[in-house]
Input
Amino acid sequence: MMLDSMRAEEEAKIKGGEDAVAWVKKELCIGCDQCTIVCDDDAIELYDTPLASPIMEVEVNRKARILRDECTGCKLCVLGCPTDAIIMIDR
Ligand code: SF4
Ligand code: SF4
Output
């Protein structure tokens, strides 16, 4: 109950709606695909990126990007991203 109200408070602080659009902070994105699952509007896609370092062993090297025209500003992806890689910005 307590957690629910804290979460609601947190959500209320994030701007959203038609004047806002999601933005991925590339450096924080780990390509986990959670945001594409929660986005009901097909406004996020993952793309392959080159390895930051050839000596690093990473299985997945993908990043998310927002399709601005499709994004409705619903904020679901911000809440769903485990690394806080998504923010809402002015459209
Ligand atoms: S949920 Fe966050 S970390 Fe995962 S792919 Fe989306 S933006 Fe990247
Ligand atoms: S704000 Fe909503 S519509 Fe926009 S990318 Fe995130 S989940 Fe999709």
In short: Residues 23 and 87 are 5 Å apart (CA to CA).
